Fold each of these.
Amino acid sequence: MSQEIILQGVILSEVRYDISSENKSSTSEILAVEDLKKYYPVRRGVADLLRRSKKVQVKAIDGVSFTVNEGRVYGLVGESGSGKTTTGYTIMGLENPTSGTISFQGKTLSAKEHKHAGLSLKLRMIFQNPYETFDPRKTLWQTFSEILQVAGLGSRPERRQMSLDALSRAGLRPAASYIDRFPSELSGGQLQRAAIATALVVEPVLLIADEPVSMLDASIRAGVMNLLLNLNRQKKMAILLITHDLSVAWYLCDYLIVMYLGRIAEKGPAEQVLQNPRHPYTAALISASPMVDKAKWNFVAKGEVDSNIDLPKGCRFHPRCPFATDICREQEPAPEVAGDGWSYWCHHPLSVQKLKN
Amino acid sequence: MSGSKTAIFGFGVLLFFAIMAVSVQFLPVPNPNALNFQAFLPPSLAHPFGTDYLGRDVFSIVLWGSRAALAVGIISAGISAVIGIVVGAVAAYYGGWVDDVISRVVDVFLMIPVFFLILIVVAIFGGNIFYTMAIIGVTIWPSNARLMRAQILSLKEMTFVKALRSYGVGGFSILFRHLLPNGVAPVITNTMLQMGAAVLIEAGLSFLGLGDPRVVDWGRTIYLGEPYIAIAWWISTIPGAFLALLVLGLNLLGDGLNQVFRPRMRGSK
């Protein structure tokens, strides 16, 4: 892949932190998600109850397992409805899982622990819409003060200083001129930086970033992305980046987890997955990205994402896959290993076929 | 008229009556209950609004009556606001069966013709003004509850609630310190309108002879002056005009506040 990437018109120079140059096994596992499932019941009318029709559920996440190591950047990618945001919310404790376990730093989390403020010191999330991340009636200082108070950190002057430090590390300088403002007095980019500062103020071990740049103007995306990268490098903060945009994922991530309809299609080291995808869905996502060489990447998935209610039998991707055969329609694929930490779930992986449509 | 001008006019009217109610005991006016033999005197310098059928000074009745009117408005609407805000907020935030039960109770209240319910209760328990205030307050809160519920329902889906939960902020604190201040504006507006409605309900009860006889009250004065409207128009008409002015002022204040609050809600999106 080229050393320069054009991201919605903005050229980012190649500043990626190359994991291959470091000892890959040097970091320890901090988050383990095991067979996570999240089903939402579909509200039924009286007629359905009378007809005794089967209980209908939306399977937002349907058996997802992955691990996150200290100081690495993971990309959770997929289209809308793939369950990537729900996965983030469930790890954060904002949704209760239907089944499966989430272990953070070796400890299995229950709903109770998620509500405990101590966990929020280490596990933080930033959200897609920076305009709605802050209570519109509170100044940044009031929000920061509440965060630190809930976490039980610092006296009032100390909290003020910690907030100022976090804001200036997030690139809002001079912090003193921002801290007493209301959210409506800041731009989208400034708000997203302030949102990152709400995480920084407690120096988390893992930051879950849900589409952190998708609502921002192209001109400020690069700045926010570089801020995240710097934090990752300097503070060894692991990031779980949730995005639909493969160019963002390529720029930031060490590992990719590709999700489709609540399941993982492929996961592995970002460079390898992006250069040589095994799952046709990964290839389709790469082809859909505006940055790629269209001569090589012309792989198009047919139609639309299927409904999470009536999931296709067999491989979930088969109705859209050009390589689908009878086995895909009948049998769910088992995980196959493609390399170190790299696996995929497909009966007809792309390595044995040509990338053609 | 723009929203802020309407609100300022309404606030001016409210202030006028508030000053009247507070300062009336220091004004050189006769006792509103003092009788004399000069009944049915038309407005003059000695009696600016004339005298009623028992020779009581109508000007004095109008001034003293502002106390009862304002007290009824503030206390009834206050009770309604507190019940409505808490009930509506709890229903929306906790959802599920809590919401179902509360919403059905609200529906029952909305089904009942409130004025007749109040009429029956006052007829049974007698015309004590405090009962009247309480019964008005506990029968008009459902509209506040519905407004508050709708506000909280939309606010609780906003990202900042998820953010607050992710910081470890508790549910009670999120509801009462973050969601309530963001959603309370329409309830305040409605409370102003309800103050006007409460004043009118109380005056209506008094006009039907169910008022508190110990309290100087516009509604009762209108009721007692009504048989003499042909020979002494001022007994009913002047207190009626002041009643109308107060209710108009409260409605304008409510409408004006409604228009003033709206742009801010758009800005918070």
Note: The mean pLDDT of chain B is 89.
Amino acid sequence: MTFQSILFEREMTIGADSNKTNDLSFLSDLNLDQVINAILSGKKEYDLEPFYHAYLNDTETIFYRQEIMRDLENEILLTVLNSFAEEMKKMREALAALEKLFYKNQIERQFLDIVSSYCKAVLILYNDLDSILLKSKGLLSFKEYLKAYIGSDYFTSISENARQIIEDLSSIKYTILIKGLQVKVRKYESEINYSEEVEKTFSKFKEGEAKDHKAKIEWYANLNGVEAKIVDGVSELFPDIFSRMHLFYKANFDFADPVIVAFDREIQFYISYLNYIAPVKRAGMKFCLPQISIERKEVSSKESFDLALASKLVSEGKKVVTNDFHLNGKERVIVVSGPNQGGKTTFAKSFGQMHYLACLGLAVTGREAKLFHCDKILTHFEKEEHIVNLRGKLHDELYRIHQVLEKATTNSLVIINEMFTSTTLQDQIFLSEKIMDKISKLDLLGVWVTFIDELASYNEKTVSMMSTVVPETQAVRTFKIIRNPANGLAYALSIAEKYKLTYGDILKRLKS
Amino acid sequence: MNVHLLYRDKDFNLQQDLPWNSEAVIQDLELDTMLKAMADENEFTFEVAKTVILSGLDNDEATIRYHQQILRDCLKNPEVVESIYTIAVESIKKEKENYLGIFSDYPDAILSRSMKVLEIFIEELKKLRNLANEKYNDFDSKGFKGLFEMLKRDLTDEYFSEMENHLTQLKFKNGVLISGQLGDGNKGKNYALRKLENGNKNWWERFKYDYLFPWLENSDKKWIRRLAHNNSKKGVYNFYIHYRDESGIRALRNIKDEGINLAANALAQSDDHILNFFVHLKSELAFYRGCMALYNKLASMEAPVFFPEPMETGHLHDVRGLYDVSLALTMNRHVVGNEFRAENKDLIMVTGANQGGKSTFLRSVGVAQLMMQSGMFVPAEYFRANICDSLLTHFKREEDTEMESGKLDEELSRMDEIIRHITPGTMILFNESFGATNEREGAEIASQITGALLEKGIKIFFVTHLYEFAHSFYEKQHPKMLFLRAERKPDGTRTFKIKEGAPHQTSFGEDLYNDIFRENKGNEPTE
């Protein structure tokens, strides 16, 4: 099978994906918008946002990506890909910079250097990949693609030509004679290095290290008018080399391979995510590639946590609390209750985050995880800011939960955080039970954060979990006063002892 | 080029770290008085003398003799030494006058400044070399001979003209020739200054047609020359920069700067090196000039000096007429000297009358040690002693007005510091140490410390009025101990002489009391 893309096993484009139009408002409820923005912020040039918003509907692609993620656990592979990305980035910048240049002799030479670096980078990438044990279908077939590309006539001709012309240009030696405002350019004729001669004469005075008096001379990468004229002069002295350079420039405008260029962008989807989670990993937190099922809703996880929060806490040097969960048999909804500030909402969010990230084919938080491949994630979080009066708020909440349930299929995931708090308890119980009833009938998987205890034991599908507060312990300092018998030493000798200046002490000290 | 008048194989470093206890040594031995006499109000000489003397404890016997020879030469040839010193001082001064200021970023400014300074230095070096030629035979020391030989060897007339030739070339009368290569983006790189061959070639160019075609008319030669010239123009690409093209001129200067950068650097570094040579010459001579000044002062008061004999090993002090320089300088006359011989003695204990010259004696021992080890003469008629690798002092500090227990604490904490730094080659001077408590406790502490140091074979001078302490050591009749006592005549008057003798029970405080209360006979030295 030929290589298509490192993100999709089969031909597929993001634009055609139906999920593109999906409502992504749940991302901000789950704080995933923070995560994604942080991931994208360092990688703007790759335009990765569409990939992070494209929820995968087929598990095959998820597995395709998980295999690649597994390969990427190899630090060496990551280093290889990062340095390739670095080279490609330099290439893009250099190509963009060409447009700002004036002088033909500089543009054409710069172009040669770019092509040459590109060829080198591709060769190095292939050789490096070849030396690493790869297991994923995606990377293996990309490696095969590279092998064929490197062996192609086109590639060998551009790399060899570029190399030869650069070598010839580099071998040119010329002299400039500056007298007043006159400049003469000639071929170099083995004139003696006068600096060396001067240095030799005066080396007689050399004694030890000397201060460096070499001036820092302003240096710009671009040619100025005078330098351009000098190069013009050199080109007249060596016309053959310069004309080959010119022809190369004219002939090879589209030298970069589109599949490799696409790979360079798409592999960043994985790398950007790994970069984001790297500090969290370094802090000792666990990540895993989840088992994903399209049928079984018996999800579970060990040591999972809220990725957005963890990223923040780790950067502040604080500890991250992890949680376990599991649903057996008919259990579907985790009802979380308990004291405030106990991490209830965080738990609900991490549950949603894990399912979303899993469906992008990425690693999720926790030592291990079994997750459900849901068709969509629906959230209902309190929205305070837009509501003027209390009746309005209840109305709004009911309206929104109605919409959620309208959209929901039996394969959807629902996350509810504190609903109906603006009305009486009686109302709350009544309304909540109604909603729970619907959720049960749809057999929805989800988490519901609430302080209504009744919900926790609503039926066989609900599971109760509670937040707890750990009491603080305090370190005890001791300033004990205990009796010691007087040792009978005179005051002066005791000072001598203090300074270790008695006869015995001094002998001991002078021994070493 | 090296001066090497202080060390045979290395330069003198004025910024070196001095021994850890230098402050204490200067204070305890009252070194400032002597240093001031050497410096003659010159702060620089003061610092040099202080550094050389305090670091002198590191010198081996050969270095000490090396200094002694040089110092003898100086005393024999004061005018020549003065001339050399003047050359060094003048060179340093003139170099300072040519300062670079804000143009230090431009190689052409660096180059022209360096050339100017170099021209001055060449003149001064010529003077110095000529002096070395003329006076070589008047000097005997290895140090001066070596310096003069080096000047004669390194600074030949040929070498001077080679340098002067470069100074002419580097004015670039015929333009600056620079080689280059194409770097990234075909930007010129590796610019290197090349030699423009013009001297002989010009002569040939000028006359070759006369030589080749002697039969031709001048106008015809001109025609041929022009033809040939055009031909040789092939392979030359020529352009001009407009005189109002400022950025072009700047760009051109940049290339030129890169070309001359290394040469400018080489010249500037040479200036630094030569300056450094003069600075060393000045500072190393400053020490000897200080010694000469001290010598003259002592000679004028007819106080004797002696070039001592340092011994590399063993414990020996064999001295006659040893006096305290600082005291002599303060009183401006020759003062009483002492005589003693301590061969294979580890402990020299000095007891006796208060104000009997004990402290003065101890100082004279310490100062003479420092002077000997830095290669100076010593204030004595005769002086032979072993060299030590560190000189530690533990003197009672008068200024300490804290309560007694605090004083003892302070004394012991200084002693602790001394133990940390002690080596087998240490010589340690105690002056009324551990007296800040009652006599019994003081004696006990002093005994324990001294006993331990003796056990380790450390050379100790101990001045004390702690009779119990001194007596207990005297009773041991140990062959490695020598007991000296401040002399007192039977009528109670002091001679300020230290003589061999056992410790006496009283320290003659009564005498002192009587002396002060009965009559005032003018001020003899006080401790």
Note: The mean pLDDT of chain B is 87.
Amino acid sequence: MRFRFAGFAGLVALIASAAALAASPALKPFERGTWQSVLRGHAGRPVLVHFWGVTCGPCKVELPLLGQFAKDHPDVDVVTVSADLVPNLPAATQSMLDKAGLSSTENFIFNDGFVERLRFEIDPAWQGDIPRTMLISREGTVTTIEGSAEMADLEKWSAQQNSKH
Amino acid sequence: MRTGLSAIIALAFVQGTALAQMRAPTASEAACEEPTLRCATKATPAFGPDGTLWLVWMAGGQVSVASSQDAGRSFSAPTHVTTRRLNLDWGPDARPKIVVDRKGGIALAFSTFRDEAFNGEVFYTRSADGGKSFAEPKPITGNNESQRFEALALDQDGTVFAAWLDKRNRVAAKEAGRKYEGAALFFASSRDGGATYAEAALAREGTCECCRLGLAFAAPGRPVAIFRNIFEGGARDHAVMTFTDVATPGEVRRISNDDWQINACPHHGPSLTVAPNGTYHVVWYTNGKTRKGLFYAHSRDEGRSFSTPMALGQPGRNPTRPFVLSGPAGTVMVWKEFDGEKTSVQMTLSRDDGETWSPPKTIASTSDTSDHPLLISNGKQTYLSWMTKADGYRLTAIEDQP
């Protein structure tokens, strides 16, 4: 009976997880090739891509600040990627994005167990440390900020994008 | 009950089909969701005194143990250490730990996430009947804040030494209005082979909170730990601490000044081995201002000074997860590299106590996700122990090459 109960609890957890992903159409799976399609999809516009994860302490502090930045800068395309290892947690991810005011940005979640390959496509030098922010200019120039980004630096970069435009 | 369960299974099947259409079949790190070795994402080995290979793994939310008499080709029926599905710590640097003492007693430790904020809890258990059964896992400390990244080491006299990263002191800091960065290195020892542990004690405040530890014995009664410390200016560089005895922490000694000032979780911890002559061999990952990548160094004075860091691996191939072990043929290092399609394990060997190293050689590869490469020695031969999603568990003898 104990075993059956354990199986039952496992199923409930599975369904809860599946239902959460199904109920979050905004959370897109980040898979092989997604990075190139993100770059293509935003070509010619300033893009801020933020890699984070629900288990990362500094990310929890930074995410609401980024939410405010996105609100203040509609001219910058903000994209978030939850880059925690799979098993990823779509419900927790969506909840944190919602609380940070990032419900309406383009939000991805890593959805390939072979994370080395996903990361290699984005940046062969990236070992998986989060948070990490990539700033992509209209011309495609990429500036990478490792660790928590200073909002002042993001403001400065954003202003540069506008002045060039 | 049965009807209800069937309905749930049917629902799970529908959801599963919907998910399968939405997700690639490669979406999980695990090959399958059963508690069997084939489904393991993390597997940790230890040799017993009679040469038996013991393996502890996490799969399907459970911790299990099995043994092999034929160098990993076949395993005994597994013993389930846990009796229900747990929220095991699935962080990149987490894994269950195992030591097997001279009498064949098996001590284990593993961690779970205790809440939705990913605070951890370290559990320990022991088998006194050759792995047939394990005691009910118990928390290693009564404190209910957060503990993660436990490590175990076995002394010659059978003392089991445990160390882990602990966040209990953030409560007092918060109440006092002080900023609390990182975590603390805590430890406890067991005189009864891991059946009970002494009260947990603080070794060092202000360590990085999300990287594995390395742990060994420098000499009988003297544990040595390697960890990512937080130095002045927020530099998350590596340090060693050699304990005076199993109850008395020692000084923090910096291994190198990499100057990695980062407020982030590298999820990428170091490795340490102590050679029979007392030399410390260490490997680590940094992305500092001074140097970036994987590095090796050694110390012949208990960590007071270290050799100039030596870079490991091909920079364009994302070298990761280094591990070092002194064995019968010399000191061996392994790490992973990725070429865009395949992950390989690279190996290099030193026969002169770390002065010179053989050219790196690929000793294993896989085309899907994999656990960290680990090294293990039975006193006669050093092996690579590697869990892979595509190819299962592998134990590979390190060739005794000139």
Note: Chain A touches chain B through 50 residues (CB under 8 Å).
